[in-house]
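User: tokens in, sequence out, please.
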């Protein structure tokens, strides 16, 4: 469960903000009493969206890890170069946790910012 909160923290805050706006609007005295049904509907839709995004992210991480261990090339975002990305090969790079590291490169690349070539 801690992994879920770490992965989705920003999206949880956005969903709570949207939910707060829905609650604020639906509970105003000048809004129809039928608008109160928007609160559980918004809660369900926001929860489904969060869980769907979490599943997508976890599947993406598994896919990139599997491709890396199979020897496929991985492209990662690198905003420090003009190319905008870096190519990761299994021979020179290793995977430590969720980060690609290379002793010759000063920084690591998070697996969440990478795709299979």
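Assistant: Sequence out:
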């Amino acid at each position: 469960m801690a992994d879920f909160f770490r992965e989705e923290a920003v999206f949880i805050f956005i969903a709570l903000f949207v939910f707060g706006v829905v609650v604020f609007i639906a509970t105003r005295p000048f809004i129809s009493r039928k608008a109160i049904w928007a609160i559980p509907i918004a809660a369900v839709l926001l929860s489904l969206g969060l869980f769907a995004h979490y599943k997508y992210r976890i599947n993406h991480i598994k896919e990139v890890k599997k491709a890396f261990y199979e020897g496929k090339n991985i492209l990662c975002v690198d905003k420090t170069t003009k190319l905008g990305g870096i190519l990761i090969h299994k021979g020179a790079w290793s995977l430590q946790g969720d980060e690609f590291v290379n002793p010759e490169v000063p920084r690591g690349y998070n697996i969440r910012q990478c795709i299979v070539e």
